[in-house]
Design brief:
The complex is a heterodimer of chains A (about 60) and B (about 150). Chain A has about 60 residues and is an all-alpha fold. In chain A, about 60% of the residues lie in helices and about 0% in strands. In chain B, about 30% of the residues are buried. Chain B has 2 domains: about 35 residues; about 100 residues, no CATH class. Chain B contains 4 helices and 4 strands. Helix content of chain B is about 60%, strand content about 10%. Chain B is elongated, with a radius of gyration of 27 Å. The chains are: A mainly alpha (about 60), B alpha+beta (about 150).
């Protein structure tokens, strides 16, 4: 029985972190607004900036 | 009383699937953490951003000279600042900053970086400009102080 519980817990955890499809039922005239926090990776941006500055410098 | 062989098999299978599910769960949990830097780019080369890049390329050497003479410096917002307006650096800084603004806006929009994205893009470009500044160029530090590199 405890093994079964672990299995269920593991599956729930798996579903939580891998993403689930959430279907919302509501009034189409009143769309739901979700304010998402966008996480920006500064390292990725620096790489982009470096690439663009390289391009500008080479064309100069 | 002996346990039927099938019962052992079922228990073994259950144990296997439990471990498998646990493994995938942990993979998923660890997978949430960013391992590599995210990739941001100019995904669509619009005529506007192409014009901005071309403009920057064309004035690159002139801008280097102006930076070398100390009339223009790299500020901590990813733009150039005129430090000596009597040298006619305004006519160089204005289009340069306009082109940079187009590039920054394009990165924010095309990568869906949201409201706070512009500030981060500017900071990233400012850091790169500081790192690439030559000895003697004026740069503004994150705390706002201007220093000669």
């Amino acid at each position: 029985m405890s093994t079964f519980k672990y299995l269920i817990a593991a599956l729930l955890l798996f579903g939580t972190f891998t993403g689930c499809t959430i279907k919302a039922v509501g009034d189409p005239e009143r769309p739901i607004t979700i304010n998402a926090n966008v996480v920006v990776d500064i390292r990725g941006l620096k790489q982009t900036a470096a690439n663009i500055e390289d391009m500008v410098a080479k064309g100069g | 009383m002996s346990v039927p062989r099938n019962s052992h098999k079922q228990k073994g299978a259950l144990k296997f699937f439990t471990r498998l599910a646990f493994f995938f769960s942990m993979t998923a949990v660890l997978g949430v953490q960013p391992v590599h830097a995210a990739q941001y780019d100019i995904k669509t080369m619009t005529p506007e951003v192409q014009g901005a890049l071309d403009g920057r390329k064309q004035r690159y050497d002139t801008l280097l000279s102006a930076k070398g003479s100390g009339s223009i410096g790299e500020n901590n917002q990813g733009y150039v600042t005129v430090l000596n307006s009597s040298s006619g650096a305004d006519s160089l800084a204005q289009p340069e900053n306009a082109d940079r603004s187009v590039i920054y806006n394009t990165i924010v929009e095309q990568n869906g970086l949201g409201g706070g994205g512009m500030e981060k893009v500017q900071i990233a470009f400012a850091e790169v400009q500081r790192e690439r500044a030559r000895g003697g160029d004026m740069i503004q530090l994150p705390n706002g102080d201007w220093v000669k590199k």
